[in-house]
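A.,

Following up on our hallway conversation. Structure tokens first:
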């Protein structure tokens, strides 16, 4: 296990991950809003990769976009803020594996960047789409990549550090020791 806030270098690295992720997301959204708005989608690599401007008032895949404004605010602004706060607190109060800590930082950065957009504009700018033929993703952004990557890294790191071997070892250590002569 890794105590995430143990060294100055670790803190600086985690801070850099968060700042760079937010910066990349915000710059890419500004570029998309400047160069993609009111233009036809752009296709690359045999249509495997598309750039297409969209304003998303909902969550992932525009889920909840048709909810009343107060409900979207409650779910996607207040709710997201609470989840991000809990994630940040857990980063400082729990001992996680290195991979899980990096995952939490990516999740927090992506979530915070999208939250900032919702607070400022009431929506998130999405512009990326990948797929092959009719099998395509929804339109997403860099923050969404950070969130999904962060969740995957957190789960992988957490499962690795609490896998069956660890439970068996912990269980074996918890069992009372009896000595027979």
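Then the amino acids I'd put at each of the 181 positions:
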């Amino acid at each position: 296990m890794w105590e995430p806030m143990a060294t100055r270098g670790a803190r600086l690295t985690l801070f850099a991950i968060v700042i760079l992720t937010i910066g990349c997301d915000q710059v890419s959204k500004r570029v998309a809003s400047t160069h993609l708005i009111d233009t036809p989608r752009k296709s690359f690599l045999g249509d495997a990769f598309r750039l297409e401007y969209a304003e998303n008032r909902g969550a992932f895949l525009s889920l909840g976009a048709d909810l009343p404004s107060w409900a979207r605010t409650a779910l996607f602004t207040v709710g997201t803020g609470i989840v991000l706060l809990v994630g940040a607190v857990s980063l400082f109060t729990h001992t996680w594996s290195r991979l899980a800590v990096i995952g939490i930082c990516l999740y927090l950065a992506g979530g915070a960047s999208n939250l900032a957009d919702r607070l400022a504009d009431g929506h998130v700018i999405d512009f990326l789409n990948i797929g092959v033929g009719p099998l395509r993703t929804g339109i997403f952004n860099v923050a969404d990549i950070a969130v999904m990557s962060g969740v995957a890294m957190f789960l992988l790191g957490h499962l690795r550090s609490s896998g069956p071997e660890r439970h068996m070892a912990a269980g074996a250590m918890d069992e009372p020791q009896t000595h027979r002569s």
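The longest helix spans residues 8-35. Curious whether your intuition agrees with the design.

B.
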